[in-house]
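Reopening: structure tokens for the zinc ion complex, inputs below.
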Amino acid sequence: MDELNYLDLHIPKLGEITQIDTGIFWLRMPLPFQLDHINLWLLEDEVAGERGWTVVDTGISNSRTKLLWLNFLRTHKDRLPILKIICTHMHPDHFGLAHWLCNGLDSGLWKVPVLMTCEEYDMAKLLSDGENQKVCTGTLPGDPNENVISTKTIDFFKSHGCNLKESKKKLFERSVFYSSMVRNIPETFTSIKSNSKLTIGGYNWSIILSSGHSPRHASLYCKSKQILISGDMILPKITSHVGVFPSSSDNNPLKNHLSALVKFKRLPPDTLVLPSHGQPFGGSEVSGLHRRLIQIESHHQERLDKILVSCENPKSVSDLLPIIFKRKLDSHNYTFAFTELLAHLNYYLWKGYLKKVVQNKIIKFIKYRGIS
Ligand SMILES: [Zn+2]
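Re-run output (same inputs, fresh job):
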């Protein structure tokens, strides 16, 4: 029981909508993971006298999602066209179909701008090239039967104690990759910044930027409606993935993530939160946004506490995985858990609570003696 106040709303079926507020609609699309859906938001808008939709996030690029979009747009053709697309960040479930949607479903019906932060667009551009992806994310593009893991990625997992004999299969099995879920990216984009103010359907929306989960994630807040489109930053049931990857293995993304959460504490406690996964919640001073922020912070603190206790003796990331993640990890979640665990270790390393030792070429972490 997470003690949050969920809106008493019909959860839309995949490819269908539920109205949230005047001019705000909730559209659900499928994902081929354990996390099986993403919430997209459609906002009624008007640009240069033309009425239509502003779409927030797109779903991944696959035939199932495209078909659901086509059916949806056919059913609601009186509300078309799409006028602009806003992507909270570059992850495939949010950005995968941006190219297709902004180019009028590849049929020239409309050509509209995609709004996102510069950092997100640049990372998407980098990762949509599979060769770069091998090094940057630790994910493994290509045919699972081919030996396509980059040397840097192999070294990264090996140096943290990953037994490649056991884990290589898991790594290879990871069959969903960035460049396969984001087949094209828009040729151009309109950059949004922290001080950007967007007017959508006559309402002003401000931008709240965050790093940690992705390079520069944008959440949208409408003060007059007290509605937050939180993207992946604030989710009701799960926490956003915050990971350290082979390209930047000394990074401290958890510090950025926790700092970003503080920004959301400045919003009214009864703000209504529209998250990318799970159900809308909030609208309540005690069981809404602020409660969830406390829960997320506690989650990370508990994990950090557990790590510190476990590191009385030197432990590698692989040693810690079964201690911190009790559940069985599938191929997809294995990489997530591995990189997330390292993000927590690096956080305490940077704070001076842990130090690194190398034993038999494996990086291990041990509690710094000065910490009681
Ligand atoms: Zn994300």
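Residues 47 and 83 are 7 Å apart (CA to CA). Residues 289-310 form the longest helix (22 residues). Marking as resolved unless the reporter disagrees.
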